[in-house]
Records
---
Amino acid sequence: MNRHIKQRTLKIITWIFLSLLSLMIIIPLCWMVISGFKSNGDLFTNSFGFPKEWLVGNYTLAWKVGVGKYFVNSVLVTVVSTVLTVFFSAMAAFALTNHRLAFKGRQVVFVFILAGLMLAPQVSVIPLFKMLTNLKLYNTYWAMIVPYVAFRIPFAVFLMRAYFLGLPVSLDDAAYIDGCNSFGVFRKIVLPLSKPILASAALLTAMYDWNEFMMAMIFTSNDAIRTIPVGVMNLTGTLRTEWGTLIAALTLSAIPIIIVFFIFQKQFVRGIAAGSIKG
């Protein structure tokens, strides 16, 4: 009986904690959506209430000036960066876990890759700027894509390696016996079995790439190729800023990632859970 009471109490406490955590996330999102309909005066005098007048024009202006103009650029940079990051990270993780590809110093290589997690992007801005300029990549889409891929690979490899270590070795051996080479095993066996972790890595990478501001600002000067985070800056003024329109732009820029998360949430949760307990 006591054990049953303890389990029930623990379950109630867990639900309360998760409910509070959900409210901490949902309430700011709701505030952001509602505040996007307010004027400056309404926003400052009635911050947490409903607007006296619902200014739908805030969202229209935010789309025209700060989001819609740069939407295609953000989608292009995010998709290309995410695909390249997941592909190269999966190949690296496979090479670091497959027993047929074992080589001396494999753990050293893994630690070297993980060392990238300790490098802050801000520290590398100047050398990256010079490198991209010398390679004539400055002010192109690749000026954003290349750094994004480089800085997301360490974390993606870390996730995928842990997941790949939990895959049955017997499947690899059976594929090799049937005449498959290493790339065939990777493409036909490992990738189909790793959809959850691939989805998790892709979603986390896409979130980073979609919201990244610093590199997109520094490595590009052509307004035609800039992404949404930089475009939102157009809504800020030197003497006056329409905060309702700015918040509306932030809301619109968050919607695509929220939609993608809801579509792949099951795969995301499965991948994170599996990758965190294996290896």
---
Amino acid sequence: MTGFVRTEDAPTLPAPADLTGPWAAVRKRLFPTPISSVAGILIAALVFWVVWNLIDWAVIRAVWSAPDRELCNAPGAGACWPFAFAKFHQWMYGFFPMEERWRVNVVYILGVLSMAALLIPSVPGKPWSALFFFVVYPIITFVLFVGGMFGLPFVETTQWGGLMVTLVLSVTSMVVSVPLGILLALGRRSTMPIVSLLSTIFIEVVRGVPLVLVLFMAANMFPLFMPPGVNPDKLLIAIVGMALFASAYMAEIIRGGLQAIPKGQYEGAQAVGLSYWKMMGLIIMPQVIKIVIPSIVNHFISLFKDTSLVTVVGILDLLGMVQTGFNDAKWASAQTGNTGYFVLASIYWMFCFGMSRYSQFIERKLATGTKR
């Protein structure tokens, strides 16, 4: 019995028709099994229904121009965009004097430029950018917002409101919570019993109460400890309360990253003679920050949205200013609230989505030698 030996290459055959082409790719990704196909169709139908109704309300049936609420109250009317156009300046500036709003615009522009210089990797001079953003920019912001110096009229914080208050609360809390959270995390892991005990007590007490309660206590109880006649600024108290609250959560995020660092990293740093703070600053913390970037950004997103809670203590942030606009009898209609909350949700989403996308960009950039 002799075997068959091929003397030439077998002809190249085309791939099966059901495994190639656009339809095959769609079927493989969206309809791999009957159950997945049914679920995909139902989800697609639900998404289409939601998107279509949103477009119908926000675009097709929307009122785009009107002097008051009359057209917005018409049967079948959609979004009342004239209300949003009329109140948008209050949502951005609060009750800041009209002739002084250029100061807020300058702060906005400087903030965007300084953050771009600090966060975009290709921009040179990172030490100078960090110095400007963390030292010079807060001073400029304080001078322009508060006034009372360099010929600028004084503006009380009760006239602040809208997006500017939301950004002041969130950015200040974020910036303060990171270094304070690192110190608390190191303090909780410290070998000194008193430092460890005090750090642990602070973290557990603050994490054990809701932010609303912290704001209430800061606004109502803190003034009781001040000398008679001294009334601390309500916005300043809210900033301090939110910063301390955020630092407790940040401490646990950093502590989780510290526990993920192999013991050999600590031993190696000590073996070359590095002190404790040099070991932490040069060896340990860069690795910790890289590990916990998703958790930090998630905490920042949550903190940015939690600034809306300051309305319960009488501070008119972005949410407070939107709700204040509902009280205007000129624009009171069935669609006023829906339109205001839709714009509010869109603004929050844009900021949160931007933070999320930037964190993913940093993760990809730092994912050297690791599986993505």
---
Amino acid sequence: MTLRLAFMGTPDFAAASLAEIAAAGHEIVRVYTQPPRRRGRGREERKTPVHELAETLGLDVHTPESFRDPAVIADFAALDLDLAAVVAYGQILPQAALDAPRLGCFNLHASLLPRWRGAAPIQRAIMAGDDLTGVQIMQMEAGLDTGPILLSETVRIFPHDTAGSLHDRLMGAGAQMWPRALAALERGSLESVPQSEEGATYARKITNDEARIDWTRPADAVANQIRGLSPFPGAWFEWPAGKGTVRVKVHLAKPEEDGGQPGRVLDDRLLIACGEGAVRLTRLQREGKAAMEADEFLRGNALPAGVALT
């Protein structure tokens, strides 16, 4: 028996799940994804990774601007689905949409709920210094990531992990969960475990101001912020240059024990004082330039000891 389902997703993280579900042989009646947007320097209109993969697989693709449109919901309900698989779709589904498939809507979320409900769980876990995270498939309900857990996989966060490296590991682990979850659903052996509200935290979107490095924080916290925002949007600082300032993103850094006035450069190899300890910047990106290792960066950007960063 195969399940009749719709898939909803947008970025690469979701495309990996679509590929696994398709390979498992389930009937994907329709794929929903965000509409094409203008991106990049040329402002060319680009389809989402899920859209491109779905077309390669020969699947029907719909890109509604809003899933709250009654006509969109009615069309969705008319598909007569067993379920909808949702991964980083980018739209909140109203209750009428959640109720339309026979078995409801299932969502893949990149944390161990109830910790880090919301939009940026991967970044938040690293920024908080968590040692463990995971991926979970849950039954969707009206609350934000509050539904019962159906399947869970724990993933370790290593000291060298960035949001980018952790994203890729969680993407792979999550995608591989779908065939297991759907097979268990067909057998009637998929267990539903309600979430506890104890320990619930929220992974709100990262703001540009929040991405600015606060050198008064302890070195471990600064290093975690840098890792958690690498490669995107990138933790950043500014330093005086001529009559203005230069903005630099930091992609990698490691804590060290030296100290001094927060934000002060302590040597000629990018050791920066923090509120407690210091961080050594090891991979940086000047505004408008490509990211580079510290030695290469220093060949064109002198940051001698004593310079104050903001």
---
Amino acid sequence: MTEDALVFDRALLRWRRRRAVALGSATFLLDRVAADLAERLSTVLRRFDIAVDLGTPGEAVRTALSGLGSIGTIVAMGTIADHGATRAEKVELRVIADEEALPFRDASLDLAVSILALQFVNDLPGVLVQIRRALKPDGLFIAALVGGDTLTELRQAFAAAESDIEGGASPRVAPFVDVRTLGDLLRRAGFALPVTDSERYILRYDSAFALMHELRRMGATNALLARRRTPLRRATLMRMAEIYARRFADSDGRVRATFEIVWLLGWAPHVSQQQPLKPGSAKARLADALGTQEISAGEKAGPT
């Protein structure tokens, strides 16, 4: 990937994750999504001998996976900043690596999961291909990414404030992808039976400043390469908070913040999986099933 195609400053992202740990990580969103992951996996009636957690900050996912009887060995992969103590009893191997360059050999994993991490990679299509290759045939991939509607209130407030005070807006929040795009990426990466869906959480804060402090403790503040490098002006910040409170506050004065979580699920191809029918192999006519009259190609329907 060329330098001009990069979106995220990965070194800065790692530094901000280390800062989040020092400040006392805010893990409420990770904990909630990790619980959802465990619930989704509990409905899959098969065993995963080797599972890898790809880059999820903290230990929420590893702890959730340890509570599932269908999970064998858990491999914890992440940056140095993400490797702290863990209560997950099944973690038997730690790998220090970046999500953009997976160190696993082909067909070596039964399960790959990732929570709120892959939205910050610069080459998501390439990472998905790496994950699919690392899975054994019929291996499963499940991930949760931050979706396109996340922090829409903060984006709007910052854009309006910078337009008022500075005459133009700069990138403040990452351009997250949508559900349809992610589904297409799974298919292009070679996954079978791809599924995507999304959930929205509306959280409330005392002020826009309280939200920004929480984002800092999540290690999720601006890591865009195209971010403005000059310090944020106090007048702009105060104007942003004013706009945020005016547009997005409830009757009690607290402000709303949207977090959209997009789920991806795909299987490494295997001959045992359900396959689409070949063209012309159907044994029943669609027109018969619908109780309608079939019209040949080129023939126009007349009045009824």
